[in-house]
Design brief:
Blueprint lengths: L14 E5 L3 H13 L3 E5 L2 H11 L3 E5 L7 H11 L4 E6 L4 H10 L3 E4 L4 H22 L1
Parallel strand pairs: 1-2, 1-3, 3-4, 4-5
Length: 140
Amino acid sequence: MAPEPTPTAAPRRARILVVDDEAWVRDLLCEFLGAEGYTVTHAATADEALGALRQDSPDLVLLDIGLPDIDGLEVLRRIRAADPGLGVIILTGNQDIVLARAGLQIGAVDCLFKPSGLDRLGSAVALSLERLRASKVGAV
């Protein structure tokens, strides 16, 4: 008789926080990422996002730059100050390269221009999470 396999813990699903003030964008991103197997939470404002960061401890944040209450780049600065290792992909409907570059200089791991296809988003999320995992393993 063959030995029974040793049970192993299921790998933890990556947690993603989606921050966008447009409900239809939030809903679309949450539905897509949930279907991809991620645990997804969302926020509509910068204040909600900063609270969710403390409560949910996400692995990655998708952050719209055009938030109504606080500029998205300022939110990114606050995220960096609170958790320098947290991955943030910025999303912008403004095709401004200077804005995108500023976000990357502050510490975003990627920038996606809206509308961006869901396949591109899925690839960016997977690649960012892989890079973040590799950097954490290398730091140990």
